[in-house]
Protein 1
Amino acid sequence: MCVVAASSVAAAQSLLSNLSGVTDGAYTGAPDAADQVRTGAATLKVSGVRVAWASVGVAPGVNRVAFYEDESGRPSATRIGSFFDNAAPTSVGVMTYSGAATLAPNKTYWLVLLIADQSELAYTNQSVIIANETTYGATLPAGSAYGNAASGTWDTSDPADLKFELIGSANGGQPTPVPQLPIWGSGLLLASILSAAWRYGRARGWASNA
């Protein structure tokens, strides 16, 4: 798995994406599918999700996307934010779903695709993750899940990754601070430097004898 830092831009932007990875096939939900998102040190305000569809059902319909909290390594019943919607019927390729969800720092969430038309998502076994630097360490953990969100039954054994991208903004993250000496420590350091300089000067005859 390769993680690349992307430059930050203003307003809504790409936060996390693996859409550039190789597509290895179509992922069958049962009927739903899910993948993990791990936030970094910043809060993520997600306003859009781009999803890659590999195939559509016999009668393409309208599907939804939502974020759920993690519960022992699988999606829980607790939804975070709104549903993400696109009124257009499912089509092969990348579709954008709009909504709103705030993901707290340093937590694992599940992006769940609520599939109503038997369409299949694109998946990859060789993810190249593009992470915006403003997320301060957010990533997409390997592996995905298929099951039924309504009943809460999930199989998390599949090592493949769904192909998607999060759009929005990140705030509140902080880079690792540079350690600094406390005030008393700085004083001791300065006194040590001055003492060493005085001893050196005295040895060279620059200081007067007592």
Protein 2
Amino acid sequence: MSTAGKVLSVLVLLATIGWIVLGAGVAQLNRNGNAALAKLQADLEKAEQGLHDAEVALVKLKADTSRFQENMDTQLAVLRAKTTDVEAAGSRLKGILADMQGQLATVETTVANAQHDLEIRKQEKDAETQQLADARAEVLRLRGVDDEMTARLASLRDEFKKTYEENVGKVSASR
């Protein structure tokens, strides 16, 4: 064979070996790629399952959140109603307290007036007691004066009687 044929057959042989090596590399790459593709396919299925689970969990969370918010809204409405009731009761109590304070002020004024009147009555009683004591003393003094006057009247009557009898005796003696 000629040199060109030898070179050509060596080149063909080398090309064939290259093709075999390249085919083996491609086969290895295909195996590796298929393994990677299978792994990626499994990862994708896991991710899709995780996404589905996450969507289910999200729907459940939204439902739970909605129920929780509804429950909180209900509780808030109840608390607001109770607060309104408490405020209304507080207003009523404040009204009652204001009325009681007004009544207390009226009673305190009445008590103060009654104490003032009591003091005046005590002063009037003391004055009347003093006047009564003065009047009794005056009565006793006047009784003493009356007794003296009665005694003097009796003595003057006796003296008058005596003088009258003397004068009657003198007039009858002179006749």
